# Entry
Amino acid sequence: MKYSFRKFNDKSKFSGNFIKLSNLFYKASEEYEDLFKKCKINKLKFIKEILNKKNSELEEIILLLNYKEIIGLVTGFPEIQFKSRKLTSLLIIRNMTKTKNINEFIKKNLIEFNARKDGIYISRLAVSHKYQGKGIGTNLLNKFFKNAKKKQFNFISLHVKKNNKSAINFYLKHKFKIKNRNNLLFYMEKKL
# Structure
């Protein structure tokens, strides 16, 4: 099979793949799943909102395609933008739910960590189910590493749910180290 990478920057070109893109986003977004269920949020409406926002978690997406079919994605941003990009997502969610106490909502749902100026954060990495186990995740990760080095980042970090054993093993296999943990998440990083 012939795969190609493409930067997601023209939303109109991918309108036929919108459902596939949103499914991959949610596959890599377990932290939102509980929140969406609890708040009864329309997932497609949320993904449309976040794709159209500047400074969102999905502003820069690298897609891996098999012909025109999206089979994987990776997205990330400089660590120092972590708080503002997560806050953008939370404000979209908050506006969709009409939560009254915004300070409490943000405090409860915003992850804290110490950002580095020379670090880049992987926000999402997902591979279509039928392409798992075929090196697609490794290809996406290697592309992300290459772009990060080009932009002169020295560290790559991410969060992964503690119960997501396959993702934890995947990142450990790629030389990430567990640096911190809380009730739900591991914080992992790798020096480039």
